Amino acid sequence: MQTKMTSARLPPLNEFIATVFQRSQLPPCVCLVSLIYLQRLKMSLPRHARGDVDTPYRLFLAAVLTASKFMSETGTCLTSQMITEMTDHVYTPKDVNLMERSFLGLIKYELFVNVQGIKDYLAMHGKILEMDLIEDVLDA
């Protein structure tokens, strides 16, 4: 029941992603790591796995929240309440907490991303993302 009500309030996924990234003002590295987490999830799921209409939205939010928390050095990471506000209260903080816990379980808490993982991801998707790898920054 909640999924039907929620999905009726959601914009197209590409607009949703753009809005969240704009409102969060996350650094590109957090955005990139969240995409790497989503790729890990995709690789580990069975091919026939299906979810609800809003599953892509939930997975995206969980990936962004997880990457933000993992990469935060100064306590400036996203919170469940911030996600709730960025999504115009489509999801409650309780929903977001559940998304995050479920997502962590699905990716088996594999959060570390090494330089080679970033290079591999950008080699596959860098043109689409319009991102280039600056070797000097990664080697520093």
UniProtKB/TrEMBL annotation:
<dbReference type="GO" id="GO:0019901">
    <property type="term" value="F:protein kinase binding"/>
</dbReference>
<dbReference type="GO" id="GO:0005634">
    <property type="term" value="C:nucleus"/>
</dbReference>
<dbReference type="GO" id="GO:0000307">
    <property type="term" value="C:cyclin-dependent protein kinase holoenzyme complex"/>
</dbReference>
<protein>
    <submittedName>
        <fullName>Cyclin domain-containing protein</fullName>
    </submittedName>
</protein>
<dbReference type="Pfam" id="PF00134">
    <property type="entry name" value="Cyclin_N"/>
</dbReference>
<dbReference type="GO" id="GO:0016538">
    <property type="term" value="F:cyclin-dependent protein serine/threonine kinase regulator activity"/>
</dbReference>
<dbReference type="InterPro" id="IPR013922">
    <property type="entry name" value="Cyclin_PHO80-like"/>
</dbReference>
<dbReference type="InterPro" id="IPR036915">
    <property type="entry name" value="Cyclin-like_sf"/>
</dbReference>
<feature type="domain" description="Cyclin N-terminal">
    <location>
        <begin position="5"/>
        <end position="111"/>
    </location>
</feature>
<dbReference type="InterPro" id="IPR006671">
    <property type="entry name" value="Cyclin_N"/>
</dbReference>
